[in-house]
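> Could you send the RNA polymerase sigma-70 factor prediction when you get a chance?

Sure thing. Input:
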Amino acid sequence: MSAKKNTLDSNKWIDKYADYLYNYSISRVNNSDLAKDLVQETFFAGLKSASNFEGRATERTWLVSILKRKIIDHYRKINSAKGQAEVRMNFYENGENEGSWLEERVPQSWDNSVEKKLENTELKSQLEICMDRLPEKYAMVFKMKTIQEFETAEICKELDITASNLWVILHRARVQLRKCMEDNWFNN
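Output:
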């Protein structure tokens, strides 16, 4: 008895998977136009590599794996261009409302203090400098895990490292960032 091999039906992809892939993408890039572009690129890549589909996964799973790669490539492109770093800032220290904002989405300060804005700009600039000083692999792991919030398994698969290696790299990156910030920001 032979197992039935799943086949692709690209004529139905938009009707069957566009909404799902868009929702998946928007939750990771938080930009509607970019999410639409990534889904379109996913469909195009799927058509180009249809001959590689082995039927071991469903069509949707296969398309999601292509989309994941597109999202990773997008962030790699941003990181390789030394894009603007995202810094997490606390908005509640404790309690059930504990959480953080990405710096670029922090609500404007009510007192519009020029000094605070200047200090945040300088802090962000120093953090970017410190991140640039990290070894390339450390910086990539730190950004993927801490800033982009990729899952550990995804990062390990992408970078071909073990989970324990990832945590060692992440720890070392944090130690180096802390030292750099202490030497160049907090002690100045």
